[in-house]
Amino acid sequence: MQHVQDDRSLGELFAELSNETSRLVRQEVALAKKELSEKVSHAGKDVGFIVAGALIAYAGFVVFLGFAVIGLYIVTHHWWLSALVVALVVMAAGGFLIMTGKNNLAHEDMTPHRTIESLRQDGEMVKQEAR
Q1: Which residues of 38-64 are buried (b: 16+ CB within 10 A; e: fewer)?
Q2: Alpha-carbon distance 112 to 76, whole Å?
Q3: What are the Cα distances from residue 46, in Å, to 5, 15, 32, 107?
Q4: pLDDT higher than 90, residue 2
Q5: If DSSP states are collapsed to H, E and C, what string results for the chain?
Q6: What is the pLDDT of residues 94-120, one digit of tens each?
């Protein structure tokens, strides 16, 4: 095994180490930002389900409620009972959509796994270089 002579001073070596470390940290921060933005973008889809469910439930409540209450009144001859039945059915449908989006969000893993693995590898590399 051949030993290579390095003529750089200790100060120069520490300056290079500092530059390389700061560059590495900047790259890791950029990777973390990218990975988290990808995860947030994906989670936005599930938030969209929640919002769509809420809007559909509200629109259903406003439009269909009046029509259905009148239709049920013809059958039951009780306005209050007709309104209650229709309201419960429409809110259950909206609740289902909201819970679907919420459950999908609960299963979304927001941990930046690639960044963590990269940091672990960087730590190993720094340990190897320090030896």
Answers
A1: ebeeeeeebeebbeebeeebeebbeee
A2: 57
A3: 59, 47, 22, 10
A4: no
A5: CCCCCCCCCHHHHHHHHHHHHHHHHHHHHHHHHHHHHHHHHHHHHHHHHHHHHHHHHHHHHHHHHHHHHHHHHHHHCCHHHHHHHHHHHHHHHHHHHHHHHHHHHHCCCCCCHHHHHHHHHHHHHHHHHHC
A6: 899 999 999 988 888 878 888 888 888
Q: What is the pTM of this model?
A: 0.41
- Max Cα-Cα span within the chain: 100
The domain locations on the chain are 10-130
* 87: exposed, middle or buried (Cβ count in 10 Å: 0-12, 13-18, 19+): middle
pLDDT in tens, 51-100: 999 999 888 768 877 988 899 999 999 999 998 988 898 889 889 999 99
Amino acid at 18: S
